[in-house]
Specification:
alpha+beta; five-stranded antiparallel sheet; 1 helix; 10 strands; 32% helix
């Protein structure tokens, strides 16, 4: 074993332990900050995705409802249709192509997906928890559409209104 001389340079055991403790404190703080940022980033992404899915659902529903020549539904209570309660919406949309004059379209929820069925099941929006259509009595075809979605603890709800152009005043 070597003898330590007075005035010799180096670190003592206590200095090394204090330095290691300070360094671990700094790294712990940085990792906690990083974890918080990742959590916030994920929550922001979930919120953006949920809002986008609601916009996509409305983007499909609104033009189809505006163009429909007929409207049929299941589980319509009073003046409200809730697709989230097993409800189903059936539309007949006029076609510009020869042959079949109308395109039958069916909307329903399967799990958390909004399905637009035109002969094949096409999920158009994910994370959808409810689609509610409410007919405004005396409004000559005005329907309020409310779409709700949720993912990862975040939720979004959008409401819009649409006129049933081909059904106004008579159908």
């Amino acid at each position: 074993m070597r003898k330590v001389e007075v005035g010799e340079k180096g670190f003592t055991l206590i200095e090394t332990i204090v330095a290691a403790a300070l360094l671990s404190l700094v790294f712990t703080t940085i990792s906690l900050y990083y974890t918080s940022l990742v959590r916030l980033w994920d929550k922001g992404n979930d919120q953006t995705e949920v809002q986008q899915q609601v916009r996509v659902a409305l983007g499909e529903l609104v033009p189809d409802l505006q163009q429909t020549q007929s409207l049929n539904y299941h589980t319509f209570t009073s003046d409200t249709l809730n697709l989230g309660d097993g409800g189903e919406l059936r539309l007949n949309i006029p076609q510009l192509t020869e042959g079949n004059p109308v395109l039958p379209v069916r909307y329903y929820l399967r799990g958390d997906s909004l399905i637009r069925d035109t002969g094949g099941r096409n999920p158009i929006a994910m994370h959808i928890t409810r689609v509610k259509l409410k007919y405004r009595a005396g409004s000559e075809g005005l329907v309020e559409i409310e779409v709700e979605a949720a993912k990862g603890g975040t939720a979004a709800k959008m409401v819009t209104s649409v006129y049933l152009r081909n059904l106004r005043g008579g159908g």
